[in-house]
Design goal:
alpha/beta, two-stranded antiparallel ribbon, 12 helices, extended
């Protein structure tokens, strides 16, 4: 009787231990997933704070598995030399008749031609680089209309800045990304020209008013394109963290920037306006359901998969699992890029879409080895199923790289000048940099004549 009771107690104890073990295993698994998720999040935060893309794990390529079989063609020696200039400002001839060593008369004389290309540094020129024009403006009183009239407008200040320096200020601030301090150093060192922070700010504010019609023209031109790219990045306005947005057409180099705004959907809607263009963006929620036709960015999908495959926070088994997923995503992206290089063929596009959609449906199946981030990525492939292959039905890009490249200029500007100080300054900066960069990217050689003409109008 006692033996049976002991056995029964032992069975209960064993059952209890099994249940506790099962519970501990479940808790341990949950803790492991939590730690894994936190480590991946720490990696993301490190990239945000310290910069850089990709981790330190498996080495993978940008567009698909394996190394490219294409070899770069060797450069010709002539490609390392400067081309002969189109024009010559002056010609100098150097003759030699005698040997400089023994003074013998030289025979079989010939001539060699060479060119020296250089720039004129204003501070090194004999002529003054800073021009000062004294204007004597006649004026008089009309007894008929009882008003004073002058030969030209008389400014309230006795000394005003000319058009050339205003154009150079716009170039230095928006194209070269100089800070006020750097701009002042440049003007003083090259031109012996002194300018204050207030004068620079005043020039930029007045320039934005002059350039507003051109800004509106560029905005409407972009909205009229078949496709528009959108992206955003953080921006500092005074002590507040805000955002900078970009909208650029699928064709052409013009771009519209809006800085000092929130990251809300209303900003994206304002950029879109009444445009019926296809929207190309990443999977940020502000763009969801914004466009009638929407292509999401495959570069982002691939980059997220690559970073996950490279993450040292994952176990080797999970890392290999993520690497397989990355290679499959990268192969699809590479196929889309290859299709884009050729002349657009709608029939071939529809056929390829069916093939790639089958591949996507296969790789987005959930697996026990999926980290939470990979599961989120697979859920994204399900949510945006209708937006994955719009590029195979329309002649547009499969990624949002164009908007990212445009926005990179503002990222560099933010690092150098720390953003803008006020909402008014953000508005002026948005107009100035949109017009300045649009014309510089479209036709850099004629930037100064074009902008100078717009500011003088």
């Amino acid at each position: 009787m006692n033996l049976e009771r002991l056995r029964e107690n032992d069975k209960k104890t064993i059952q209890k231990l099994k249940e506790e073990s099962k519970q501990l295993k479940s808790e341990n698994q949950t803790l492991q997933l939590t730690v894994e998720t936190l480590l991946l999040r720490i990696e993301e935060l490190e990239k945000i704070v310290f910069g850089g893309k990709g981790g330190g794990g498996a080495k993978t390529l940008l567009y698909g598995p394996g190394k490219s079989s294409k070899k770069k063609k060797p450069r010709k020696k002539s490609s390392y030399k400067r081309s002969v200039p189109d024009h010559v400002d002056r010609e100098e001839v150097f003759e030699i008749d005698q040997c400089p060593d023994c003074a013998s008369t030289l025979q079989k004389k010939t001539k060699a031609e060479q060119y020296i290309e250089d720039i004129l540094i204003p501070a090194l020129q004999e002529q003054r680089s800073k021009q000062v024009v004294k204007e004597i403006v006649g004026k008089g009183f009309c007894t008929g209309c009882r008003k004073w009239h002058s030969a030209k407008a008389i400014q309230p200040q006795s000394v005003i800045l000319g058009g050339n320096v205003k154009t150079l200020v716009l170039f230095a601030i928006n194209i070269l990304n100089l800070s006020y301090s750097q701009l002042k150093t440049l003007l003083f060192s090259l031109y012996d020209f002194q300018i204050s922070d207030g004068e620079i700010a005043n020039i930029l504010e007045r320039s934005s008013k002059k350039l507003l019609p051109e800004y509106q023209r560029i905005r409407e031109a972009i909205r009229g394109k078949p496709a528009n790219h959108y992206d955003e990045t953080s921006w500092q306005q005074g002590k507040e963290k805000s955002y900078a947005w970009v909208q650029t057409g699928g064709e052409g180099e013009e771009a519209i920037f809006v800085v000092g705004k929130s990251r809300g959907k209303l900003v994206a809607q304002d950029l879109q306006g009444d445009s019926q263009a296809i929207g190309i963006s990443d999977c940020y929620a502000a763009y969801k359901n914004l466009f009638e036709v929407h292509q999401i960015c495959w570069a982002h999908l691939q980059r997220n998969a690559r970073d996950l495959a490279n993450s040292p926070s994952l176990s080797k088994e999970k890392q290999k699992h993520c690497l397989r997923f990355y290679r499959q995503i990268a192969e699809i992206y590479a196929t889309l890029l290859e299709f884009q290089k050729k002349k657009f063929d709608l029939e071939k596009g529809h056929k390829l879409k069916a093939e790639l959609m089958n591949a996507v449906r296969e790789i987005r199946q959930f697996h026990l080895l999926d980290p939470k981030k990979l599961r989120n990525l697979k859920e994204r492939l399900i949510t945006y199923e209708d937006n994955l292959f719009v590029c195979l039905s329309h002649a547009i890009a499969p990624d949002n790289n164009k908007a990212e490249r445009k926005l990179r200029h503002l990222v560099l500007k933010r690092k150098n000048s720390f953003g803008t100080k006020t909402a008014k300054g953000s508005h002026a900066f948005s107009i100035n940099i949109s017009v300045a960069l649009s014309h510089f990217w479209s036709n850099p050689k004629n930037w100064f004549p074009t902008i100078h003409s717009l500011l003088s109008a």
